[in-house]
Design goal:
Number of helices: 6
Number of strands: 0
């Protein structure tokens, strides 16, 4: 996935709205492995190793996109707030921080959605990676114990 393409897409709301579509192949991979976990079919070391490798790749692909979307959300929110404050002060009106904070937050709703969806996938992937590592560790211990018993 081309990170520069994603960066360009996040430059405006029209193309930013397509960012999650661009990530769909990675979401599909994560969803496939989610199904394997749900069905309880990840119980052998070879399959867990494959899942670890593929999900690590998915994670490494989505994490920079998440960082870009988060930065864009934060920056746009600050820009909105600062611009609105300057406009109000230039008119000589009283600036109300609370309402402007809410407006600024609303102005980045699209980016917040992108960040939250990416957060959810990344969190799930982290859990899946941890689970596979645990399964591999358990299977390794189990094999070692079986080997030790056979030598006794």
């Amino acid at each position: 996935m081309d990170i520069n393409k994603i960066r360009t897409m996040l430059m405006n709301d029209t193309t930013a709205s397509k960012t999650l579509d661009e990530c769909q192949p990675m979401f599909d991979k994560a969803n496939h492995f989610s199904d394997l976990f749900l069905n309880g079919t990840l119980d052998n070391p070879d399959e867990c190793t494959r899942v670890l490798n593929e999900l690590t790749g998915v994670y490494l692909t989505l994490k920079p996109i998440h960082a870009l979307a988060e930065a864009k959300k934060v920056n746009n929110e600050l820009i909105f707030y600062k611009t609105r404050k300057q406009e109000v002060e230039a008119k000589g009106e009283k600036f109300v921080s609370t309402s402007t904070e809410k407006e600024a937050s609303l102005s980045v709703a699209l980016y917040r959605e992108i960040v939250y969806v990416l957060d959810a996938y990344l969190s799930g992937i982290e859990k899946a990676l941890s689970t596979c590592q645990s399964v591999l560790k358990f299977k390794s211990e189990e094999m070692r114990m079986t080997k030790d018993l056979g030598q006794s």
